[in-house]
Write a structure and sequence with these properties.
The complex is a heterodimer of chains A (about 120) and B (about 400). Chain A contains three helices and no strands. Chain A has about 120 residues and is mainly α. Chain A has a single domain, classed as Methane Monooxygenase Hydroxylase, Chain G, domain 1 (Up-down Bundle). Chain A is flat, with a radius of gyration of 25 Å. In chain B, helix 2 packs across helix 12. Chain B has a domain of about 280 residues. Classes of the chains: A mainly alpha (about 120), B mainly alpha (about 400). At the A-B interface, helix 1, helix 2 and helix 3 of A face helix 2, helix 4, helix 5, helix 6 and helix 7 of B.
Chain lengths: ~120, ~400
């Protein structure tokens, strides 16, 4: 089992190292001739106005919150799914209870209009 | 162990014996072989991507009644290699005001997040990377890293389009992760393990037969996770110019490009592994190398289906896309899980035929119900038919008086 994790660790390091190495090689091969016009921020040919870290719709944040709630709760269901073949019908009823609680959260967000793209 | 029937383990075995005979310690040999394997898989995947790019452009051309690349080599087959050589020698433009660390980390992370999935994929019965017992969770977690790369790119670029594109992309990707994670419960339930190798081994009958609705939800979500048409709102050339990667040039852009194509192929592989039975097929017990061939054929079929959808379906509007996810796919996924668990528990596992039949019928009922609900939902919001020169306005009540007169 430890070997499997060793392979995973090595793989992750390699997966990071190969694109990094490619970028380094390309950096050595490529020309470097910067000038102010070339380096200016792109905005369809216009001069940029104001800072680029602009305010954005709060909707994105709300989706992020709903996602967080759902994903964390679903991940809690995975141990149940692994043990599914060992539990009796009672286990399935517990799943239904859990999912009803989860779905009522979704319904609440829906009724509150959090899912509408405004 | 025969070389022709099962080449990869044969080579590994031979190498191990050779290195051990040189007097190296066993732990060192294991680590060395893992290192070689990881480098081979990563490099192979990235070089394979150049081939994929060519194939996708060629097939895409055919779908849209064009020729596609046809100048460099026979059938334009060296087009991607020419592109690769060119992009390697392109200048990196670092725009003013970028945040250096996120800006440079993002392309690396984008590729690494996709490559890392290949560590847990079983390619055949005897050739698999790491059979960790949390394989599915690993794939989900690594998928989250890709979103990290996008937000880093958008935030580091010092560009409004990039920032807006990144927010859109992340909103879309995290939303579609929810139904995907929910339906992934079903294969775990059937196989009783989260390891991908165990899941494939449990699929003597592929899970697409047991759970077609879950399979379809997973397929739709993986297209959305790729950010391809009809879900390509994160690129949306006409609105965001290019999205989060707008300020990138040279190979830094190339890395996002590679990550995009590799991600599409990787999700085809994951789909094959989880729902189509991976390397399972007739005769794999005797000849394990056949498993790899089955896997490749199935993956290419899924990939072709993805291409067909990409090149024929137009783009969604963003509110439609979010509504599809949160109001249709997520509730449907929750109901599918409950229903599958109930039906599967009600029928003993020995009666395979009856069990499959019952699950199929239940899935069909679910699908029809969902279809009916979508139809009523869309009837409530009718599409306005555009006729003549008078086009319906999005919000007629905010028109000024003068504009109303011209409209009439």
């Amino acid at each position: 089992m430890l070997n499997e994790w060793l392979y995973l660790g090595i793989f992750l390091v390699i997966a990071l190292a190969i694109p990094a190495a490619a970028l380094l090689i390309a950096g050595m091969l490529s020309p470097k001739k910067p000038n102010p016009i070339k380096d200016s921020t792109y905005e369809c040919g216009m001069e940029t106005v104001g800072v680029s870290w602009v305010q954005f719709k709060v909707q994105y944040y709300i989706y992020g919150l709903i996602f967080l709630v759902f994903d964390v709760e679903i991940v809690l269901l995975y141990p149940w799914a692994v043990a599914y073949n060992k539990v009796a019908l009672f286990g399935v009823i517990e799943l239904i209870l859990f999912i009803v609680i989860l779905a009522s959260g979704l319904l609440y967000a829906w009724r509150k209009g959090a899912l509408e793209w405004v | 162990m025969n070389f022709i029937y099962d080449p990869v383990p044969w080579v590994i075995n031979w190498l191990t014996q050779l290195l051990l005979s040189w007097g190296l310690s066993e732990n060192f040999v294991t680590t060395l072989l893992y290192l070689v394997g990881a480098v081979l898989i990563c490099l192979g995947a990235m070089l394979f991507t150049t081939m994929l790019i060519w194939a996708e452009r060629k097939i895409g051309g055919r779908f849209q009644d064009r020729l596609g690349p046809n100048r460099v080599g026979p059938w334009g087959i060296f087009q991607s290699i020419a592109d690769m050589l060119k992009i390697f020698t392109k200048e990196y433009i670092n725009p003013v005001g970028i945040d250096k660390i996120p800006f440079n980390l993002a392309p690396i992370l984008a590729v690494a997040a996709v490559l890392a999935v290949w560590a847990v994929i079983p390619f055949s019965q005897t050739v698999f990377g790491s059979n960790i017992n949390v394989g599915i969770l690993f794939i989900i977690a690594i998928g989250g890293l890709g979103e990290m790369a996008i937000i880093l790119a958008g935030f580091g670029s010092n560009n409004k389009y990039a920032l807006l594109g990144a927010f859109r992309a992340v909103a879309q990707l995290i939303s579609y992760e929810v139904p995907m994670v929910i339906v992934l419960l079903i294969p775990v339930m059937f196989s009783g393990s989260m390891g991908l190798n165990d899941i494939v081994q449990a699929q003597t009958i592929p899970f697409i037969v047991y759970a077609p609705v879950a399979c379809m939800i997973f397929f739709i979500c993986s297209i959305a996770e790729n950010g391809r048409a009809p879900f390509d709102l994160l690129e949306a050339d006409s609105e965001l110019v290019a999205g989060y990667n707008i300020e990138y040039s040279g190979l830094k852009f190339g890395m996002f490009f590679v990550a995009d194509f590799l991600h599409a192929f990787t999700s085809a592989i994951v789909f094959t592994t989880i729902f189509l039975g991976g390397w399972q097929g007739p005769g794999v017990e005797q000849i394990p190398v056949l498993g790899g061939a089955y896997m490749l054929i199935k993956t290419l079929l899924v990939y072709f289906l993805m291409l067909a959808i990409r090149f024929t379906v137009p783009r969604f509007r963003i509110d439609q896309m979010m509504a599809l996810n949160w109001k249709i796919l997520t509730p449907l996924a929750l109901v599918t899980v409950v229903m599958t668990a109930l039906v599967d528990k009600a029928i003993p596992h020995e009666m395979t035929a009856i069990r499959i039949g019952a699950l199929l019928v239940a899935n069909l009922i679910l699908w029809l119900l969902a279809d009916r609900m979508i139809t009523t939902f869309s009837k409530r919001n009718p599409v306005q038919v555009v006729t003549g020169k008078l086009r319906p306005l999005a919000r007629p009540e905010i028109l000024s008086v003068a504009e109303k007169e011209t409209a009439q």
